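[agent] plan:
  1. take the single chain provided in the ticket
  2. run structure prediction with default settings
  3. attach structure tokens to the ticket
  4. add a short note for the reviewer (M.T.)
[agent] executing step 1
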Amino acid sequence: MGTFGVTALTAPATTDPSHVEFEMNFQLYGAIAATKAVLPPMREAGAGTLLYTTGAGSIWPDPRVANVNAAAAALRNWAMNLHKELADADTGVQAAHVGIDVSIGTAVIPGLPTARPEQISPLHWELHTTKRDQAELVFKL
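[agent] step 2 finished; step 3 output follows
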């Protein structure tokens, strides 16, 4: 199997806890730490948007990247729960997830289509401006 940055990509049967540790720290714990820093003033202001982005493997798992998908799915789950918590409390703050079902720029997984950032970014803008009640959008070609 290949690598993605510093992460060795692993299939489910060959994944060890150490194969998921970096991705959990990077994806889930990083997002939680960043949210803890910005959410209190956003709640005080009664406005703002928190957007979390993962590969679409968080929604539709791909066994070629099981360890990355596991962390991405954890982040997606947490973001969807945060969306519901903030909406139920009528805070004016939105949390949402964008799943990206392509490689950005260069193919990381063989056979996966590629897209440019400017093709993907409108989903983030839509969630922030016109689809504030939605918890998730997915970019696909």
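[agent] step 4 note for reviewer: The mean pLDDT is 94.
[agent] ticket updated
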